[in-house]
Amino acid sequence: MSHYQHHVFFCMNVREDGTACCGHHDAAEMQQYAKSRIKQMGLAGEGKIRINKSGCLDRCDEGPCVVVYPEGVWYTYVDRQDIDEIVDTHLVKGEVVERLRI
Amino acid sequence: MSHYQHHVFFCMNVREDGTACCGHHDAAEMQQYAKSRIKQMGLAGEGKIRINKSGCLDRCDEGPCVVVYPEGVWYTYVDRQDIDEIVDTHLVKGEVVERLRI
């Protein structure tokens, strides 16, 4: 079994040259929001869920982006409602959110 | 199919309070070394391999640590020879390096 049931990586890349990057789309705030929600729900930790920051996932043009492993499902998001849907539907119920998939 | 065949995350966490953390074990240098080797071998990119930095993977006591997805295989490492073995055996040949597994 996987160390984490769902291991989520938020791309936190910030490009200083003005080109597309996840860091210009509230990635830091959204990662913290997702992490806090999972913790509040008692779902954080080994055998459960881990919400991580990561360096550039190299899909900036489709971002801001996040990847959920071991499933290998990629999402984009705009706001907290999107994060809530990824948390409640994918991480809790195990169903892919097709609307946000990239 | 997964966007990346192997997606590797190096824990880059640095703790300032002196407790165990991956950042005190050359994690930055080792991540850069692995990334450069994969690029030199022509194995970097979509459908192939991505070597990423990540925030704390929360296994510092067993670290420095790295996780390979979608397989969900975790490794520790000491030096470049360990990185070479993970690259050559796992990422290229697809065989788990039991010696370095955590």
Characterize the structure shown.
2 copies of one chain form a homodimer. The first copy, chain A, has 102 residues and is an alpha+beta fold. Helices cover 26% and strands 21% of the residues of chain A. In chain A, strands 2-1-3-4 form a 4-stranded mixed sheet, covered by helices on one side. In chain A, helix 1 (27-40) crosses helix 2 (80-92). The first copy, chain A, starts with 5 loop residues before the first strand and ends in a 10-residue tail after the last helix. The interface between A and B is medium-sized, with 21 and 21 residues.
Please give a handful of descriptors for the protein shown.
4 strands, homodimer, 102 residues, 4-stranded mixed beta sheet
H/E order of the elements of chain A? EHEEEH
C-alpha Rg of chain A (nearest Å): 13 Å
Number of strands of chain A: 4
Mean pLDDT of chain A: 92
Chain-wise SSE layout:
The structure is a homodimer of 102-residue chains.
Chain A: E1 6-11, H1 27-40, E2 49-54, E3 65-69, E4 73-76, H2 80-92
Parallel strand pairs in A: 1-2
Antiparallel strand pairs in A: 1-3, 3-4
Explain briefly what this protein structure is.
The structure is a homodimer of 102-residue chains. In chain A, strands 2-1-3-4 form a 4-stranded mixed beta sheet, covered by helices on one side.
